[in-house]
Each structure stands twice: as structure tokens, then as C-alpha cells.
Write a structure and sequence with these properties.
There is one protein chain. This protein has a domain at 53-152. It is built from 13 helices and 13 strands. The chain has helices at residues 10-30, 57-73, 79-94, 114-130, 135-152, 171-186, 193-208, 237-247, 250-254, 259-273, 298-312, 317-337, 365-378, and strands at residues 43-44, 50-51, 169-170, 209-210, 215-216, 219-220, 274-275, 280-281, 284-285, 291-293, 296-297, 349-350, 361-362. The strands form six sheets. The protein has a three-stranded antiparallel beta sheet with strand order 2-1-13, with no helix packed on it. Strand 1 (43-44) and strand 2 (50-51) form a beta hairpin. Helix 2 (57-73) packs antiparallel against helix 3, helix 2 (57-73) packs parallel to helix 4 and helix 4 (114-130) packs parallel to helix 6 (171-186). It is globular and about 50 Å long. The two termini are 23 Å apart.
């Protein structure tokens, strides 16, 4: 610790930049993109070879974000070509005539899944920014949101996940919709996104969060009540951190102060969802904090990292010190997941015995890594008290 008010993270910040700029981004553009058929592959094996073919729209959307953010972070590689590659494939191969987007390239699969629509909206915002505010992209996004309002609007609040209805409802797609609305607002487009964003925050605060613990649930019935049985008791620590990060942005973006809600979410995740011995975020606990699933997944570590950086920058005293130490612990854990034979890849799952599953790296996780590492890179590895951008 450098002093009582800041933690010098220059080493891990520099490490994050080197890993991302020199290894991950070049590898996932050179080997992770299908330069013949278009789009991005679902996975790379641990030698860096593609696995399968481009399949899901969420992978294309997330990779578009990854390379757009890389450009904003200062990567000098072909980020713009990568954005164009993802965008062209997404719009050409997944667009439906009605303004919605297919989930996969399976010709027999015409599902409209809310989670996937959220990531298309998110990607369109980042493409809009990368393309100098292309009005055509905004039109596509507004048409998509209008169709979601028509096709999937929930009668009480938020959105259904599919039509016909699919139960249980989940909080996670609502969270990613909120993320997509915020992405549009951050590039200067408030309407119609700000109104929808505020409605989702109100849904979270009034129905999705357990007032007894401050933790957000995962599964709900058709009336946004916690699902019956074991499903309704599940609390994923990674989602506590992810929601906490988004809600701490709401005052700046919406004028809605959700700081206490954000703090409570982070506190629950840290108190019950972080293994004190292994020093990592586990996969699931119940409503009382009892461990349900002690495995660890990469994305939960990056969400803990991002939220700790963001909240430490606006917190004082002992709580700030705790969050700063959480930044260090989270980054140490992330580095373990990134310690692969070929740099630029990662292990996705760690079992309870601390062994990594020897599996290919899923492309979808690069989005989580970039969201987590970006704050460290932007802040030159130090927490000096300012709100990260």
C-alpha cells in the first residue's frame, strides 16, 4: 500500500495492458476471427486454434465491443477492421426482417432471446461510437428496442425472455439490457434508453433484490416474485458485483442515487461469495450466504475486480482500504486464470480443488476480461479517488 488513501497498482495495470495489447487482442483477431467465412469463432483451443464455426450472435456482439473498447484504450492494432468485421457479420447473418435478431445461425432456430437482443443493443452502441455516430446504427437500435417493447414487454415491469413466455424469469437478461441502455447514454443518446434504464433499476430495487440481505436473486416467477424451491434461493456472487457496478453509475447517468443498493450488493458478494482461503469469487451461494457451488468461473473474478476498482475510487476510510485490497486479490486471481501455455488465452473454470478444467477458451469471456481490465488500464494502475470512466 502506497499510503492511507491510495494503492499503487502500476505493476498490475502495466501487466494488464501488456497481456491485452500484446497477446490477447492480436491472437483473437488473427486466429479468433474467421477471415474467410466472416464473424468470430466460439472458442480457441489451448494452442490457439479455432474450435467449431461462428454460431451465436452474442459472441459477435461481445467481440465487437472488445475491439471497439481496445481502440478507446489506445491499442494500435487493427481494432477498426475487427469492429467492421463483427458488425457486418452480425447485421448480415443474424438480422430478422422484423427488426429482431436471431440467436444462432441454425436455420431452424428462429428464437428471439432477450439476453441476445441485449447484447446486440450493447454492440450497436459501441459501433455507433466507433463509426462517428452513424445514424443508421441508431435507427437499427431504436427499431430493435421498439420491437422488444411490442414483443417482450412484461405486464408489470421489465421484459419477458421469450415469446411464448419462458419461465422462470431471470434477473441476468434485465441486467444486460440495463448495461446496453447505459452504453447508449454514455455515447450521448438518451432517448429512448434513459427511461427504460430507470424502469429496470426500479424493477431491481423493488422486486429483484431481497430487502433482508440486499442481494439480487437469479430466478423469478411470472410476477417477479422469487421462484419457488431451490432456484429462488440462488445468489450468484458474480452477479452481485456486476449489478453493483452498473447501479453505481445511475446517479451520473440518470440522476438516480442507487449508491446504497450498489454498496449492499457488493458487500453481500464479498462477505459470502468470496472464499477467504482461496481468495476468489465462487459460483453460487444461497439467500443466507451458504455455499451452493464452490467452483469458480473467470467472469466472476473480473466482475469483482471491476466493481472493486470503481467503488474504491469513490469511497473513503477503512472501506476504501478493503476495496483496494479486493482489487489486488481479484487481479491476482485473474492472473491465475490467464496463466495458460499460450498467452492471450484463459481457463474458464476452476474446480473446488483449485484445478483448472483443461478446456478451450470461450470467446465470450474476452468481453468480461476487457470490462475488468479497462479500468486498471485507464487509471494507469492507480486508484487516486477519481471516478473511473
Amino acid at each position: 500500500m502506497a499510503d492511507g488513501s491510495s494503492v499503487d497498482l502500476s505493476e498490475v495495470g502495466a501487466w494488464a495492458r501488456t497481456w491485452l495489447f500484446d497477446h490477447a487482442l492480436p491472437l483473437w483477431w488473427e486466429a479468433g476471427a474467421d477471415h474467410v467465412g466472416g464473424g468470430f469463432f466460439e472458442k480457441l483451443d489451448q494452442r490457439g486454434n479455432p474450435v467449431g464455426t461462428p454460431t451465436r450472435v452474442r459472441v459477435q456482439a461481445r467481440q465487437l465491443y472488445v475491439f471497439a473498447e481496445a481502440g478507446r484504450l489506445g491499442w494500435q492494432g487493427p481494432w477498426r477492421a475487427a469492429v467492421e468485421h463483427a458488425l457486418a457479420f452480425m447485421l448480415e447473418r443474424y438480422s430478422r426482417p422484423d427488426g429482431l435478431f436471431r440467436s444462432t445461425l441454425d436455420a431452424a432456430d428462429e428464437r428471439v432471446d432477450l439476453y441476445d437482443q441485449a447484447f446486440v443493443l450493447f454492440a450497436l452502441a459501441h459501433a455507433y461510437d466507433a463509426y462517428g455516430q452513424d445514424a443508421q446504427l441508431l435507427m437499427i437500435a431504436r427499431r430493435l428496442l421498439a420491437r422488444l417493447d411490442e414483443w417482450l414487454a412484461h405486464p408489470l415491469a421489465g421484459y419477458e425472455e421469450a415469446n411464448p413466455r419462458r419461465l422462470p424469469l431471470r434477473s441476468n437478461p434485465q441486467m444486460h439490457l440495463l448495461e446496453s441502455f447505459f452504453a447508449w447514454m454514455q455515447v450521448g443518446v438518451n432517448e429512448p434508453f434513459s427511461e427504460r434504464a430507470l424502469a429496470l433499476i426500479e424493477l431491481a430495487e423493488s422486486r429483484l433484490i431481497d430487502p433482508a440481505t440486499g442481494a439480487i436473486g437469479e430466478y423469478f416467477d411470472g410476477d417477479w416474485k422469487f421462484a419457488q424451491g431451490a432456484e429462488g434461493l440462488i445468489r450468484e456472487p458474480g452477479h452481485q458485483f456486476e449489478w453493483a457496478y452498473l447501479l453505481q453509475l445511475s446517479k451520473t447517468l440518470l440522476g438516480h442515487d442507487a449508491r446504497s443498493t450498489s454498496v449492499a450488493l457488493e458487500a453481500f458478494g464479498s462477505r459470502y461469495g468470496v472464499d477467504s482461503v482461496r481468495k476468489l469469487a465462487i459460483f453460487a451461494v444461497d439467500h443466507a450466504g451458504k455455499v451452493i457451488d464452490g467452483k469458480a468461473r473467470l467472469w466472476a473474478q473480473t466482475e469483482r475486480l471491476r466493481t472493486s476498482v470503481a467503488l474504491a475510487a469513490v469511497t473513503d476510510g477503512a472501506e476504501r482500504e478493503r476495496l483496494q485490497q479486493a482489487v489486488i486479490a481479484s487481479m491476482e486471481t485473474v492472473r491465475r486464470f490467464l496463466d495458460t501455455p499460450k498467452r492471450g488465452l484463459w481457463w474458464e473454470w476452476m474446480d473446488e480443488n483449485d484445478s483448472f478444467r483443461q478446456e478451450p477458451s470461450p470467446a465470450s469471456s474476452l468481453y468480461h476480461l476487457v470490462t475488468g481490465l479497462a479500468l486498471l488500464i485507464r487509471n494507469d494502475g492507480a486508484l487516486q479517488g477519481e471516478q473511473p470512466l
